[in-house]
Amino acid sequence: MNSIDEHIRKDQAEIEQARTEGDQPKLRHLEDELKGLEEYKAHHPEDSHDPTPLEVYCDLNPDAPECRVYDD
Fold it and tell me: For the residues of the chain, what is the DSSP string, one character each?
């Protein structure tokens, strides 16, 4: 993906497809991913790049051990 907006549109289309096919596990995964992307976008309105899953996770969980940044 080139931008977060493209990723959001792709997830929305895949959610509709999963809903049509009755694929509940995929539907839950995509809905969680979409929620994270939308929250990331709300927190970073000036940033249009497609964030990695780690960037989204750290944005939602800044105190998680894997998100800590140490300055030398």
Answer: --SHHHHHHHHHHHHHHHHHHT-HHHHHHHHHHHHHHHHHHHH-TT--S---HHHHHHHH-TTSGGG-----
Report CA 3 to chain centroid distance, whole Å: 12
pLDDT of the chain, 72 residues: tens digit per residue = 689 999 999 999 999 999 999 999 999 999 999 999 999 999 999 999 999 999 999 999 999 999 998 887
Q: What is the pTM of this model?
A: 0.83
Are the beta carbons of 6 and 50 closer than 8 angstroms? yes
Q: Alpha carbon of 52 to those of 2, 16, 21, 58, 65: distances in Å?
A: 12, 23, 27, 10, 17
